[in-house]
Amino acid sequence: MEIKITSNTRNELLSRNEVAFTAVYDGATPARADIGAKIAAMQNTPVEKLILSSLKGRFGTKAVTGVARIYDSVDALNATERAFLIARGKPKAEKEE
């Protein structure tokens, strides 16, 4: 998977960077966690401070466009983002039998 950052805008009011990107891949569409981990590594930031707000793929193409929000602190992330977006980025808990 190859990720190209198309824009990186600083939002001082919300203490975050808004990163627009395009991810080109082979095979199946990559998981949100994989895309988030790669963007976090490219921006030298922990995954805990990153939220993928939107991912859009077009039918018939091997590319996904999206927006990632990278916060200065986890507290700023929790104060700003909605709960379902925060939960969407975390791994699912394994079921106990």
Automatic annotation (TrEMBL):
Pfam families: Ribosomal_S24e. It comes from the Archaea. SUPFAM superfamilies: Ribosomal proteins S24e, L23 and L15e. GO terms for molecular function: structural constituent of ribosome. GO terms for cellular component: ribonucleoprotein complex; ribosome. Keywords: Ribonucleoprotein, Ribosomal protein. GO terms for biological process: translation. Belongs to the eukaryotic ribosomal protein eS24 family. This is Small ribosomal subunit protein eS24. It comes from Methanorbis rubei. The lineage of its organism: Archaea, Methanobacteriati, Methanobacteriota, Stenosarchaea group, Methanomicrobia.
